[in-house]
Amino acid sequence: MALEILELHHHGVCMHPSLTEPMREFYEGVLGLSSDAGRPRIPGIPGHFMDVPGDTQIHLLGKEGPSMYAQGPGRDPVDTHVALAVADVAGAERELLRLKVDYWKQSSVAAPQLMQLFFRDPAGNLIELHQASHCRCKRSDRERAA
């Protein structure tokens, strides 16, 4: 049995911290996206969460070298990644164990109550799994909570 992915939540784009403001300006001015004003402050990680039509986000994440959240070489949740939602993150973890996928888990740097699972695909791309409806990625969830 494979993991059951419910939706794409965000795509995290890593850059040098000095580029986070020019990137926000580009994503707003050229792509017409708006910045999520409620993005939590993430110590050591400047950036912006850009709302994309279709209820997803692009996370602009500034860092230089490994972040303070890295759990060793190749295990930095602030690297460029794609984040996918699952219905049950504990069940997804059990499935990763069963499939013998090398992964690590940690609390979200943006929302400590959110447990995340990280692993790499065969090409080395970083994938994040987290529980659906437990993050700021979906504008519709934020609007319902307000």
How is the secondary structure organized here?
Layout (H helix, E strand, L loop, with lengths): L4 E11 L4 H10 L4 E2 L11 E6 L3 E7 L18 E6 L2 H10 L4 E5 L7 E6 L5 E6 L7 H7 L1
Parallel strand pairs: 1-4, 5-8
Antiparallel strand pairs: 1-5, 2-3, 3-4, 6-7, 7-8
Relevant CATH superfamily:
2,3-Dihydroxybiphenyl 1,2-Dioxygenase, domain 1
Q: In the CATH classification, which architecture applies?
A: Roll
Quickly count the domains. Answer: 1
The CATH topology assignment is 2,3-Dihydroxybiphenyl 1,2-Dioxygenase, domain 1
Q: Give the CATH class.
A: Alpha Beta
Secondary-structure content class: alpha+beta
What can be said about the biggest beta sheet?
8 strands, mixed
Mind telling me the C-alpha Rg?
15 Å
Kindly estimate the percentage of residues that lie in beta strands according to DSSP.
25-35%
- The number of distinct β-strands equals 8
Strand order, sheet with most strands? 2-3-4-1-5-8-7-6
Spatial shape = globular
InterPro entries: Glyas_Bleomycin-R_OHBP_Dase, Glyas_Fos-R_dOase_dom, VOC_core
Domain VOC: 7-132
Pfam family, one: Glyoxalase
Protein name: VOC family protein
